[in-house]
Amino acid sequence: MASSNTYRLSCSVPGHEMDVRGLAATWFPEGAFVSVSRDRTARVWLPDSSSNGFTEMHCMNGHTNFVSCVCIVAPSETYPRGLIATGGNDNNVCVFSLDRPDPLYVLKGHKNTGHEDCVRGLAVVSDVEFFSCSNDASIRRWMVSGECVQVYYSHTNYIYSLAVFPNGQDFVSTGEDRTLRIWKKGDCVQTIRLPAQSVWCCCVLPNGDIVAGASDGIIRVFTESEERVASAQDLQAFEDELSKATIDPKTGDLGDIKMEDLPGREHLNEPGNRDGQTRLIKEGGHVEAYQWSMSESRWIKIGDVVGGSSQQPSKKIMYEGKEYDFVFTIDVNEGGPSMKLPYNVTDDPWLTAHNFLQKNDLSPMFLDQVANFIIENTKGHTLGSAPSVGSDPFTGMSKALFPLWSGRYIPGTGSTVSAPAGVADPFTGGSAYSSSGVRQTITNIYFPKTDGVMFEQANATQILGKLKELNGGAPHVHQLTEEALNSLEKLLLSISDLKTKGQPTVEQISLLWKTCHWPEDIVFPVLDILRLAVRHPEVNRQMCSDTEGVSLCNLLLCLMGPEGRPANQMLALRTMCNLFAAAQGQELLLKQREAVLSRASDLRSVCNKNIHVALATLVLNYAGHLHGQPSELEAKAQCLSVASTALEVVQDKEAVFRLLVALGTMVSGDDSAKGLARSLGISSQITKYCSVSDPAKVGDCCRLVLGELQ
């Protein structure tokens, strides 16, 4: 067994449709965090006591390209729950609150105000200010109100990251110009060059030391403290490593270089006039670069310059106004539009590949493939040599066909999907499918699905822990006594596993109903207990009969309102799904069908995977109950309409699958329902899912539904 002080996996949190680019812990709610992604969204994740994981609480949209960074602004009097700032490849910074999905402010990129290129990093200054940095080589200081109050320039290439010192004013930055820069009182007071092309990230430790991570795979720590300064031997080793680096003038601040115009070593006898000042000298037929250190009052060699002007005629290729050793033509898919990949032999192939994928919005999973292609096709080439591998005799450009996927559906590229040979529960995944090769027919194990699908998983210990925690801070009028908490604990234990045949008491059920009226910001653990409780026949009977049932339905509909909290919306939907576990709950939901499905359908626009799965499950449970009842044509029409409109926006594959099963269940053996589905254009709407092979059940189910509608 692992020791108690080692880190082990706690949970996995699926949710984003594309890769996650940034994370930050939030101030409120406690224990939550924010993620940002290439899918252009930012999402807030709340600890879920029922699953020992996290539930999506809030989804924010505002960027028109992928989101690359995030920071959390502390609560203030104006924003008591704090703010979330995100930066994206649309050159914008969006500022969000937890009260709405759209931004409070969009800090757009235009001259002298916003960034003019991708925003790469954010750092909080205070509860009213934050920094941003960008590929436009600028750092900007913003008020949370959206006003840009200062712009800082010193870097000569992309800036990747920022970190603020404990004093809340001074900061550090890193970038593609190989430097870590230290800013005090608004000025760059020190420039530290590293023997790596890209300095990707940095942070400031509580003791004021600076940590930087670079493309050479090394993390370096810099300090002002004499006690923590490296040994003389280590300092010399670092300086020696730096002096052996090669510098491409196109990526730094060295400018155009003509060797014949450069001075010799005597130029280093003159002191510099600012820290980080760069000076080039001619030494034995090549160019060396030196940097002035104010603290040591001397010039430090930072590398040999390569790729500058020479006496030899240029054999480079011109592309977009710049000269390159190679310009590859990349065909993402045969017959599709080509993309150009320019490259110089002094460039880092991995950085070039990274920038190419970002520019063309291609998946980063192809980073190795593109970088290795560059390495393979530039082997043996030296500076200034003419390209020879596969080059076009007229343009000098090299061409390659890459079988890359851009994430878009391309007709005809889907592989043949084999049907499952064994029978498994496609909702729980119980007993894995076995495969005996490609089959021509698909066995329909999916619909009609007439038994309800329930949300039954729970972690009683965590639910109770969160309930007691929130009870301690609840308004006095809502606080539960120790006796009441014990009563709810007994109820939860009796209904967590229905096989134990525990019998909830009238008093416990009454207490649960009373506690369901807690304030919306703390009621979610109570709703988790309610979700589990309504599966029990006795709780279902008492809470769903007559006026009690109408009151329960109204409470859940209120929690599902458009201004509701996502966690409450999700739990209310799950509770309604579980009401189908017994006859009284089924009867209640059939009576309230029009209001329930109408309100549930409105939640399709909420960018939340768990809500979408719960919505799809509710539609599926209605479909299962209506199956075989030809007289319920109006109810089926509403279910078909809700499923159709949900499929327009739902992205999660499990939610899509459950909606497809609901469609199949409604039209199976019912010609009238089939006619309604055809009139809604469902066949053309779902055809795109036929090519889905991961998971295979989506593609299989889609083809079966289309077969019913033919």
UniProtKB/TrEMBL annotation:
Residues 445-708 form the PUL domain. Coiled coil: none annotated. It is found in: Cytoplasm. GO terms for cellular component: cytoplasm; nucleus. SUPFAM superfamilies: WD40 repeat-like. GO terms for biological process: proteasome-mediated ubiquitin-dependent protein catabolic process; ubiquitin recycling. SMART domains: WD40. It holds the Pfam family WD40. WD repeats lie at residues 152-184. InterPro entries: ARM-like, PFU, PFU_sf, PUL_dom, WD40/YVTN_repeat-like_dom_sf, WD40_repeat_dom_sf, WD40_rpt. Keywords: Cytoplasm, Repeat, WD repeat. Residues 291-388 form the PFU domain. One of its GO terms (molecular function) is ubiquitin binding. Belongs to the WD repeat PLAP family. PANTHER family: PHOSPHOLIPASE A-2-ACTIVATING PROTEIN. This is Phospholipase A-2-activating protein. The lineage of its organism: Eukaryota, Metazoa, Chordata, Craniata, Vertebrata.
